[in-house]
Design a protein that fits this description.
Shape: globular
Order of helices and strands: HHHHH
Strand content: under 5%
Number of domains: 1
Helix content: over 70%
Structural class: mainly alpha
Distance between the termini: 41 Å
Largest sheet: none
Radius of gyration: 16 Å
Length: 116
Amino acid sequence: MQNGMEQAVRAYAASSAHRSPRDQEAEVFRRAVAALRSGRGANPVVQVRALADNTRLWATVIDLMRDPQNGLPPALRASIVSVGLAVQREMQRDAPDFDFLIGINEDIAAGLSGQA
């Protein structure tokens, strides 16, 4: 088992070395989109898992945007925080709008990938 884990870590490191940090960040949002799509209309356990993962993603994004050492322009950081807070509010609803959450994450992934 340990050998398999070591191989996975090496494979990830090798593939990550060929992608920019922005591409890697976009991939995180694309994975969240895939989880949300799977969760949309699924059983509650799958939905809760997708929402929990998305909650962690956006909490991290918001924390990074609030970091005074962040090099992004303050207005852009504030806009991203605003979007993140809207996403968090939506996820706290009794019946979150998965299409809204998917759309936001797709837009962020596209922006990070230079496709926006």
